[in-house]
Specification:
227 residues; TIM Barrel; 40% helix; binds pyridoxal-5'-phosphate
Length: 227
């Protein structure tokens, strides 16, 4: 079996290669290791190989692992669907939340962010091509929500996150990211510096279209078992 250390090395080199090929600044794409359903030992293994940013989808599971890994200097990202009764814990225990999809959730996160912590980094999740999923705002809603959320004092609105419907073909993978990137560029807000684009299946297409954070689970930790 390939070890997490070896896989991490491979993914880092894929990211580097894509940065070169698509004329992205070297080191401009952050690797977020998505550790949902995986044990704390796997996170520790990646950590010892130099990985610092980890993404989780399920609050209770994430809080358990954070307890186990309390001594580690990890930057925690929440990337799962958000219920409003979970915002206090999210505001307290995470550095980033990628999946904000309403003014109500954003307002709660801002109000509940503890005063001793820096502003919470957030992304707005935009639903570009997946009609099945109810998560995410539409592109049409983005400009107005931006204006409302950017005023919230304890948040730092960094950019957008998207999970396009899966596509096999590379050009089809690129298309939704291109559309999203252009929509954000049109807002012309330099503080929007984050594009949370790309997973195991479309990392390269995402980097081609401006991703600054790729969220990689399967390629790093192996298939997930939800049993
Ligand atoms: C699970 C998940 C990922 C990781 O997906 P892989 O295909 O395993 O790399 C990325 N982003 C989100 C939002 C996820 O829920």
């Amino acid at each position: 079996m390939t070890s997490i250390t070896q896989r991490l090395k491979q993914i880092r080199s894929q990211i580097r290669d894509a940065e070169l090929v698509y004329k992205r600044q070297p080191g401009s794409v952050l690797l977020l290791a998505v550790s949902k359903t995986k044990p704390a030992e796997d996170i520790a293994a990646a950590y010892h190989a130099g990985q610092r940013h980890f993404g989780e989808n399920y609050l209770q599971e994430a809080l358990r692992k954070q307890q186990e890994l309390g001594a580690y200097d990890i930057t925690w990202h929440f990337i799962g669907p958000i219920q409003s009764n979970k915002t206090k814990a999210l505001a307290t225990h995470f550095d980033w939340v990628h999946s904000v999809d309403s003014l109500k959730i954003a307002t709660r996160l801002s109000e509940q962010r503890p005063a001793h912590l820096p502003p919470l980094n957030i992304c707005l999740q935009v639903n570009i091509s997946d009609e099945q999923s109810k998560s995410g705002i539409t592109l049409a809603e983005l400009p107005q929500l931006y204006e409302q959320i950017v005023r919230l004092p304890n948040l730092k609105l960094r950019g957008i996150m998207a999970i396009p419907a899966p596509q096999q073909d590379f050009e089809h993978q690129r298309q939704p990211y291109k559309t999203l990137y252009q929509a954000v560029a049109k807002l012309n807000r330099p503080e929007l510096d984050t594009f949370s684009f790309g997973m195991t299946g479309d990392l390269k297409a995402a980097i081609a279209e401006g991703s600054t954070i790729v969220r990689i689970g399967t390629a790093l930790f192996g298939e997930r078992d939800y049993g």
